[in-house]
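stuck on this chain:
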Amino acid sequence: MYLVLLVLCIGLAWFDFKTARIPNGATLPLLLAGLWLNFPGRPETWLASALLLLGWQQRMLGGGDAKLWLALLWLAPVMIPNPAVVLGAVWVATGALQLAWRAGRRLRVLGIRRPGAWRALPFVAWLVMVS
């Protein structure tokens, strides 16, 4: 199942690069499936969800990116230890890479939105490896 999710996320990342959008038709069913499969979840899942929503509210990520990250977080199997920690580490590491790339190309580093679905790919690849 997670290999299919990886292929879907690769497609979403490509679509995001082309259109700067992540369709609700892809993210909302994933989010609902994750909630249905893993509700009520763990406390760290709720905390990470709140932090993602706060990041969206503070314009650190777009709405489609936030929904994709939330869906992936809730789709992580309950038996895997600390998926929220891994998600946070991937989010921070890919964010740092993105900022470094912008700085290296002498682009404006902060205050811009760029396609970010690609940043979820390492987390999904980790899900494939551990499940």
In short: The chain has a mean pLDDT of 91. Helices lie at 2-19, 24-38, 43-57, 63-75, 83-104, 121-130.
